[in-house]
Batch of 2 targets.
Target 1
Amino acid sequence: MNKDNQILTQRREKADALAALGVNLYNNSFKPANAIKDLLPKGTHLAPEAYDETRFTYTVAGRILSMRKFGKAAFCHIVDSSARIQIYVKMDTVGEEQYAAFKKWDIGDIVGIAGKLFKTQTGELSLQADVLTMITKSLRPLPEKWHGLTDVETRYRQRYVDLIVTPETRDTFRKRVEIIRLVREYLNNRGFMEVETPMMQTVPGGATAKPFKTHHNALDMDLYLRIAPELYLKRLLVGGFEKVFEINRNFRNEGLSTRHNPEFTMLEFYQAYATYHDLMDLTEELVSWISQEVNGTMEIEYQGAKVNLAPPWNRLTMDEALVQIGGIEPAILADGPKVIALAKEKGIKLEEQAGPGKAKTELFELLVEEKLIDPTFITSYPTEVSPLARKNEKNPEITDRFELFITGREIANAFSELNDPVDQRQRFEKQIEERGDDDEVHPVLDEDYVRALEYGMPSAAGEGIGIDRLVMLLTDSPSIRDVILFPHLKPETKGQEQDKKKKPSCPCSC
């Protein structure tokens, strides 16, 4: 019998022994009256070895994280969702019967304690137990105290264990909740209305990506998990809602990486009678304010790099960035065939129908993107790669669009919206005509969206912000899996537990 099976057997034997003593291993009647965090300030005034003079009995519940058992006394630490506290258990206080049952408790058990506050000789605030209650018996051991959950894949697969033993993980997801709350607060305070749009769509649109496909039996029709809510949100602009936003899931049938998960969270918002310049100002204010609220500063560190989020942020056109950062001669950028030739020279694979706009965008991703550490808005994207953005009135080869980059990765994408139904139809048709083997471009034109534009959509600007990437930035998390509670992974194979002991494993698809 290997060590793991031996421990599981011992745990079950302890559980059987407790049940034989009449202990309810899965108690559903214990109700804690106090959160541990509320006890901590009540004992700050106590001197070592002093008891709370009120002798008030507090009732808490939590999971055992450590235990030190002696002859007729023991110490353990328990933790609830708010904090941790030391528990002192003395046989003379709880009685021989309760103490005998307590000695069969394990690290990982969820227990209830009623007792009084005091400080130990070393000055640690503790709760001396008067009553002990088993709430849930743990049949599996937690990771060793000093090693924690070090295997990365296990942390992602068994997030429930990661949350138990890794305080930094709990802090990250508390920050995620706070960041999303602050996004809502900011937009609500500025008159935006939160809405919900379909997750299953007949025509996947609003972005270029390969969708997940399913079939609705009753309607006998194919449906697609949405790749973006954009076209539905803009339908609401047509309907008269002038400021709308949605925070919800998008789904893209693409590979896994430190920046990509097939299911991810996006904020998308749209404002009538605004331009992409207005959204740049809004985005600067939103992100810098959230950083100040969550981290207490606008000067943060991400994976060792200093990042200054205080406005104003850098603003460059794509051509300016390619010249200043990418080192490309302006004369080359002005010559379409030369741009395409340069892209191919750099090893970029272009579709046969790709033009200079696509070549510029690929060169930007190769030569510039990862060098944009401090917040930088890149504007004037080629019309060729921006089928939903409004053309610039002075130069129809570019659009009124920006993407925001921080720490070398895209955080947001926005543009002044195209509201000309004739132009929109032509761009959709051209995109479909030139799709070639690109399965990220859907071959069906969204006729209903064009029809909506024909009723008239006000001038507007819209933006999408990747919530997961924003949380990564503000929590100094290196992988998107660190900020998604249950990220997608390859199926766990039989014997994987044994394999992980032999060599480190990688949770990605490489």
Target 2
Amino acid sequence: MHLLVLTDRTGGGKSLLPALEYLDHTMQDAPMESHSLLGLGGSDIVLVDATQDLRQAAGATRAVSLHELDKPVLVVMSEGGLAALKATWGFEDWLLPQASPAELETRLRLVSERSAARRPQRAANVGDLVVDEDSYQVRLRGQPLDLTYKEFELIKALANAPNRVFTRELLLQEVWGYDYFGGSRTVDVHIRRLRAKLGPEYEQMIVTVRGVGYKLVPPGQRTHRGPEDA
């Protein structure tokens, strides 16, 4: 997992928690400032250094919650400061700087598992098709489809709004981003690949709207191709 460590210590996270040296996790150090929360996007757990400035540490843990960043916080607290630790800080767990690699690994795992258990599952169901955003998996009649990342993002966009017509330009923005300079032909190529992977029985779920774009239609609502299809 990827750890974001908020600390002003020289030497960063490995100075705060020497046990990190022995664990197989990636880590990013950031100062104890509000702008550091901008780096939360790719992190799994936030570690907050409460061994020096308790007020600053409390502010950092509360900021994660107030910004609704949905990341579990683990506070690193010296033994002498434990009396000041309060649940209102909004942390998931705490540990001492001298924690062993085994203890640290266990606490990280438990924090991650508890956070995942609370998080509502994000999945779009369209008939026999299930698009699971958390596992990045698409299942058809319970069987996983072997999709590339872009194919997954494309079918996810369609499945989140069944029967809605997406223009090629909108799909380019949602899947490839605003800074993508390729043409809409790329969407057509990926749609053909998706249809092939859905197979003959389900390929017609992805309907081509002539001159506009594509939509995903639940099975049973459409049994043949009409004049709107390219």
